[in-house]
Every structure is written in C-alpha cells, then in structure tokens.
Amino acid sequence: SIYLEEAIVSYEWQFNYDPITITESPAGEYSFVINTSIADVGTYQVRINAAKENFSSFQNYRFDVTIINRPTVLNGDESLHLISKTIWVREAYNFTFEYEDIFDEPHVKLTDLDQAYYQWYEISNGSIVGVISDVIDLEEGSNSNYILNFNTVSRDVGDYALFVTMQKNNYDVRTALIDLTVKKRIITWDLSDPNLVLSKINVDQGEIIVIEFELADLAEPIGQRAITGATVLFKLGSEEYELEEGVDGTYTYTLTTGNINTFLAAKVLTGEITITMEDYISQSIPITIVVGMTEIFPGFPMFYFLMIVGAIVAIVGSLVAYRVIQQRRIPTFVKKARSMKKNIKGKKPIS
C-alpha cells in the first residue's frame, strides 16, 4: 500500500453543520483536533470521509469519542474533605474552600460554579435534631475561593453537621463534611484577700473580710476580657450573699466577723462561691474562713487571760482561807500568850 497525497479528507460530528476539511501534513498524513470544550461529558460519534480523483471514495468511517469530567480537588482532597472544628459560643468563624482543576499544573481555581452550597442539621447523641436545612449558597470570595458563613456568632451550644457541595459542568463534583461543635466558654477567676492562703482565710474576731473576685474570658482579645453581668453567690452555712459587681469584671462582698462568737474557741466556717452566667461553664469554689478567738491584746486571747486571772484569784483566796482556818485552830490561851509576848517586846502594858 502507498500513501495517497492530495486527497480530500473531512470529518464531522454533532457540533458542526458542514464537514470540516482535514489539512494534509508534509508527510502525507491527515490529523485533526476536536474542540471538546463545546461538548458536555458523554460519548460522541465522529465520521470521516476521504476522496481522491480516480480513486474510490471512503465514506462514513466512524469512531466514538468519550468525554469525561476533568479531575478536581477540594482544599487539596480528591475524595470527601473532612473538617472537625470546635469553637466557643458567640465566636465568629468562617470556613473557606478552594475548588481546583488539577489536570494542569499549576492547579487552576475554578469559579462561576454551577453549584456551590451547603446544608446543615443539629446533632444530639448521634441523631439528627429537627430537619435538614434548605440549600444555602456559599459566598464567592475575592481570591477565587468560596466562603461558608454559618453565622456561628448566633448559634447555640451544641453539635452541628454541615455538608458542602461544589460542582462545575464537565468537572468532578467535590463534597465536604464539617463536624462543628459549639461549646460553652470558660470563666477564669482570681480571688483576692490579704488573709487568703490556698482557699483559706484566717482572721481575728472582729476583723472585716473583703472577698473580691475578678472574672475574665481569656478567649477574648486583650482589653475585652472582663466578664460583666455574672451572678456570683457566696454561701456560708444557711446564709447566701450576692457579691456586688464593680468595674472591669470585679465582684466584691464584705463580711464582718464581730458577731461571730469565738470567746471559748476559734470558729471554722466552710462556704462555697458559685459563679454563673449564660453561655459559660458554671464555677464552684470552696472556701474556708477561720475566725480566731477574741483577743484582749494582739496575740493573746481574752479567754486564756481570764483563765489565768481566775486561777491567780483562786490561789490567793485559798491561801487566805487556809490562814484563817489555821488561826481558828490555835487555842485561846496560846493566842493570849503570843499576844502578851508581843506586848512585852513592844514595851506595851499587859492586859
């Protein structure tokens, strides 16, 4: 067989109305390029015709062309993209996605998508709460990416699942699953009192105790961490007192000890301070207050002083009583003889 030159060769398929002539190469070969960008994914038939003067023609040579989706990735994943995220309640957080064509290098970010949306539902103990949401469109960003704004600032504490779908015609569809947990915030507290040592306050009876708390949320930016509007309760025995809110997240209560009876022994009071506020984990802080005995002067309890004074009085009284008793036991003539002897020594008249 020999190659035939200067033949008329053409092809046609469903996207052209008239046959397209195939140009002959210098080597006598005939080749052509099909513009598949005008076709969707699918299988198409191409027909080729060839003719040359004085030669029989070659008609309707057919073959199939199958066009498949171009490969893509979503945030670098060629399969399901999984995201697990935990945030504080009232925290603003957006999810960002890049949908890329990886057929060429470098990868090309795809825009003008046919579908870019998400749906969500709440989860409790592994089960769906309520109904699955309607389709919500992603927002196209300025850097050829897409943003999922779930409005986390207004979401309640709980667990959420979000399913993302991104697709463009003739490109592989990509999906993502977001496991989102919105949790309560943590109260950071600082308790101050000059007499405080390891949750224990030691004072003398009559002293004033100033309990002061400073509450902060370390998840907030510096300068915005003070927690205001909290309820701080001080429970002492059967009594309950509420700390007064001051400025910059401070809460104060003043406890007087003048009415606590510590005459016979020191008093140990056990209490508890509870801190509660919406969207925060409640805190419970045990506290012990030791009120010392009443002092007559610094470092010396009045009870001990009275005991010592009483003991001295008792001893003196005993000695006096003993002396009186001994005097009463001496016979009368002996007492008179001793009296006469004293008068003689004193040169006094004897009676």
Defining traits:
351 residues; mainly beta; Immunoglobulin-like
Structure report:
With 351 residues, the chain is mostly beta strands. It folds into four domains: 60 residues; 112 residues, Immunoglobulin-like, CATH 2.60.40; 106 residues, Sandwich (Immunoglobulin-like); 45 residues. Helices cover 12% and strands 43% of the residues. It has two helices and 28 strands. Strands 6, 10, 11, 12, 15 and 16 form a six-stranded mixed sheet that branches. It is rod-shaped and about 195 Å long. The protein starts with 7 loop residues before the first strand and ends in a 6-residue tail after the last helix. The mean pLDDT is 83.
Determine the number of helices (DSSP H or I, runs of at least 4 residues). 2
| Approximate helicity band | 10-25%
3D shape: rod-shaped
Which CATH-level-2 architecture of the largest domain? Sandwich
The CATH topology of the largest domain turns out to be: Immunoglobulin-like
Structural category is: mainly beta
The domain count comes to: 4
User: Over all CA atoms, what is the radius of gyration?
Assistant: 50 Å
Fraction in beta strands: 35-45%
Q: What is the class of the largest domain in the CATH system?
A: Mainly Beta
Mean pLDDT: 83
The topology string of helices and strands comes to: EEEEEEEEEEEEEEEEEEEEEEEEEEEEHH
Number of DSSP-assigned strands? 28
Sketch the major β-sheet.
6 strands, mixed
**Low-confidence blocks of residues:** none
Distance between the termini: 185 Å
Topology of helices and strands:
Elements: E1 8-12, E2 20-22, E3 42-51, E4 58-67, E5 72-74, E6 81-88, E7 95-97, E8 99-101, E9 108-109, E10 115-124, E11 127-129, E12 136-137, E13 139-140, E14 146-148, E15 158-167, E16 174-183, E17 188-192, E18 196-197, E19 200-204, E20 208-216, E21 231-236, E22 239-242, E23 244-245, E24 250-256, E25 267-276, E26 283-292, E27 295-297, E28 300-301, H1 302-329, H2 332-345
Parallel strand pairs: 6-16, 19-26
Antiparallel strand pairs: 1-2, 1-3, 3-4, 5-8, 7-14, 8-9, 10-11, 10-12, 10-15, 13-14, 15-16, 17-20, 18-19, 20-24, 21-22, 21-25, 23-24, 25-26, 27-28
